[in-house]
Amino acid sequence: LVGSGLSLEELRALENVAEDKRLRWLTERLLEDRRWSDYFAERFSRAYVGTNNGPFLLFRRRKFNAWLSEQLHENVGYDQIVRDMLSADGLWTDTPQVNFVTATMDEANEGRGDPIRLAGRTSRAFLGQRMDCLQCHDDFLDQVNFGTPLDPVTGTQQHFHTLAAFFAGTSLADP
Q1: Residue 9 three-state SS
Q2: What crossing angle do the helices spanning 8-15 and 22-32 adopt, rounded to 10°?
Q3: 72, 125 Cβ separation under 8 angstroms
Q4: Are residue 143 and residue 86 in the same domain, yes or no?
Q5: Which residue among 15, 92, 112, 153 is buried most deeply as judged by most CB within 10 Å?
Q6: Are residues 43 and 96 in the same domain?
Q7: Are residues 123 and 70 located together in one domain of the fold?
């Protein structure tokens, strides 16, 4: 839960807890530990914004990671964290959640978000589906499904481009 083993001090404290209560005690203690939120923020950051530092003038991975760690430490709901990343306004330096979008920008975009990259990143990170292939063709292998388990709908290019259209207006604010 915290990315490392227990310290000697933690092991000694655990020995003083009744054996039938150790798992619960340790789990609660680790979830209150700042190391938990730092560790999971780093893991989630890899999925959300990747491991590269990106364009220096547009992206601050460390600020995003610190913001995400704070959200996890404060027990903010996952739905709210995602909502903040997808709808945030502001500068990447003082509104760290904006870095989810700015991580996809480069100089060729001329200050605009890349709707294709954002759609691909969003589908992987939040929907758990890799639907980048739908950018070019319908899913003929039935690996990307929409709808319900009882009534699945095979993924099409239209599904992908509908998601990408959501990000079409994404841009940097005018200074």
Answers
A1: helix
A2: 140
A3: no
A4: no
A5: 92
A6: yes
A7: no
Residue 82: other Cβ atoms inside 10 A: 16
Per-residue confidence band for 21, with pLDDT thresholds at 50, 70 and 90: very high
Six token digits for residue 159: 């599904």
Q: Which residues contact 75 (CB under 8 A, 6 or more apart)?
A: none
Place of tokens 């964290």: 81
How does pLDDT run across 57-81, given as a tens digit for each residue?
556 778 889 999 999 999 999 999 9
pTM higher than 0.85, yes or no?
Answer: no
**Where does the pLDDT of residue 113 fall: very low under 50, low under 70, confident under 90, or very high at 90 and above?**
confident
> Tens digits of per-residue pLDDT, 121-153?
888 888 888 888 888 888 887 778 787 889 888
Q: How many CA atoms lie within 13 A of 136 on its CB side?
A: 2
Cα dihedral across residues 120, 86, 100, 75: positive or negative: negative
For residue 147, the enclosing domain spans 113-175
Tokens of 156: 């099409």
55 within 8 A of 105, measured Cβ to Cβ = yes
Mean pLDDT value of segment 30-42: 90
* CA-wise closest residue to 92 among 66, 127, 123, 115: 66
Whole-number Å distance between alpha carbons of 123 and 160: 9
Domain-embedded: residue 108: no
Q: What is the pLDDT of residue 175?
A: 47
